[in-house]
Design goal:
4 helices; single chain; 13 strands; 209 residues; alpha/beta; Glutaconate Coenzyme A-transferase
Length: 209
């Protein structure tokens, strides 16, 4: 047993605090708005120039002019505002965004993050990831714990090009929740049906008690 994508997104949504400004990365993080706890109000920022993103549109109601940073169609809210990329990145670099919830290809025990490219594969570009991990106050990563071959993606050292060094605060994977602490990673919570031994066995990184 382990968490599926929706369960990981639901667990990530519990990290949200009322009244904060949050940036969501592509992939699993885009599911987080579906699970925002009742009574919690957050404002979602997209680095392509939108503050106050609404939910995904119903089929047939898509507006091709309304997209998030991952090129997915979204909706606006009565309080939504639009601005250019310079203003958007000014918010990010100026520390105005409280949290980023991002996907990851690899995370190290020191909180290093690799989430933007695999050498030799065509990518569209870095996007806002480097600015986000450097500018926001808290970075939460949501990811599968292992790759399709069963190899750990939670490592002593990242092998892929880094997005940022020592930037990750918390890892939420399909096996559980871990925090980056001095000396390695600390287990915070186990996914449903997952034992501590299974989590440890799937983790290359150092786990501290």
């Amino acid at each position: 047993m382990a968490w599926d994508r929706n369960q990981m997104a639901a667990r990530a949504a519990k990290e949200l605090q009322d009244g904060t400004y949050v940036n969501l990365g592509i992939g699993i993080p885009t599911l987080v708005p579906n699970f925002i706890p009742e009574g919690v109000s957050v404002t979602l920022q997209s680095e392509n120039g939108m503050l106050g993103m609404g939910p995904f549109p119903y089929e047939g109601e898509e507006d091709p002019d309304l997209i998030n940073a991952g090129k997915q169609t979204i909706t606006e809210l009565p309080q939504t505002v639009y601005f250019d990329s310079a203003t958007s990145f000014g918010m990010i670099r100026g520390g105005k965004i409280a949290m980023a919830i991002l996907g990851a290809m690899e995370v190290s025990e020191e909180g290093d993050l690799a989430n933007w490219m695999i050498p030799g594969k065509l990518v569209k570009g870095m996007g806002g990831a480097m600015d986000l991990v450097a500018g926001v106050k808290r970075v939460v990563v949501v990811m599968d714990h292992t790759n399709k071959h069963g190899d750990s993606k939670v490592l002593h050292k990242c092998t892929l090009p880094l997005t940022g060094k020592a930037v990750v605060d918390r890892i939420i994977s399909n096996l559980g929740v871990m925090d980056v602490v001095p000396g390695g990673l600390k287990i915070v919570e186990l996914a449903d049906g997952v034992t501590e031994a299974e989590l440890r066995a799937a983790t290359e990184a150092t786990i501290v008690d």
